Amino acid sequence: MKYKNDFKVVGYFFAGKEQNKFDRIRYDLLTHINFAFAIPKRDGTLLPLENPEAALRLVKEAHENNCTAGLSVGGWSWQEEMLEQIFVEATDTDAKIDLFVDSVMDMVNEYGFDGVDLDWEYPRAGEPSQERYEKLMLSLSRRSKADGKILTSAVISGVTPGNVPQPEASACTDTVINCVDWLNVMAYDGGDGLAHSSYEFAVNCGTYWR
C-alpha cells in the first residue's frame, strides 16, 4: 500500500494522441489512474476508443506499477459537441440504460480495466436526468459488483468559488453515493488564474461532499 488508511490519489490520462505522455505518469504517487474518455452515443452504445493501443498500454503499465486502472466514460464534450444531452438521450429508456451498462462493462472487460468512472457532466437536480442518472448508477453498481469491478463517479464541485452550495450537486443523491466505491470531485473551475484550482477551493469542495 502506497499510503496509509487506504488513501487514494487518482489521476486521469487523456486519450488524445498528442497528449500520450506515458513518461510523465508518476505511478509512484498514484494509486489509481483513469483512461479518459470512452464516449457515449445517443443509442446507448459507446464509440470505439480513440486510441485503443494507449488504453492497453495504460492498463499494462498501471498493473506493473501496483496501480489500479479505470475507464472514465463521458466528459464535458466530444468534437465540440456537449455530452450532457447525449447522456440524456442515451438513458431516456430503461432499455437504453441496460444497453449502456452492457456497452460500458464490455469495454471495461475487453481492455482489462479494473473499474469504471462515470463522468456525466451534469445530471440536473429536479429534472428527468436526475432520475436517469440514478437508475444508470444503480444498474452499473449491480453489474460492477457482479464482475468484481470498482465503480466511481466524477461529480460537480459542490460549491461555488464563494463557498455557496450548488443546487445541481443534489442530483447526486444518497442512492447514487451508496452505489459507488468513492466519488471523484471536480475541484476546479473555481475562477481564473490561480483561482481555477486553488487549495482553498479544493478544501471547500471536499468539505461539501464529506
Write up what this structure looks like.
The protein contains 6 helices and 8 strands. It has 210 residues and is an alpha/beta fold. The chain has one domain (4-209): Glycosidases (TIM Barrel), CATH 3.20.20.80. The strands form 2 sheets. Strands 1-2-3-6-7-8 form a 6-stranded parallel sheet. A hairpin with a 2-residue loop joins strand 4 (77-78) and strand 5. Helix 3 (94-111) runs parallel beside helix 4. The mean pLDDT is 95.
Question: Topology, pairings included?
Answer:
Elements: E1 10-14, E2 32-38, H1 52-64, E3 68-75, E4 77-78, E5 81-82, H2 84-90, H3 94-111, E6 115-120, H4 128-147, E7 150-155, H5 174-179, E8 182-185, H6 199-209
Parallel strand pairs: 1-2, 2-3, 3-6, 6-7, 7-8
Antiparallel strand pairs: 4-5
Structure summary:
By secondary structure, the protein is an alpha/beta fold. It has one domain (4-209): Glycosidases (TIM Barrel, Alpha-Beta Barrel), CATH 3.20.20.
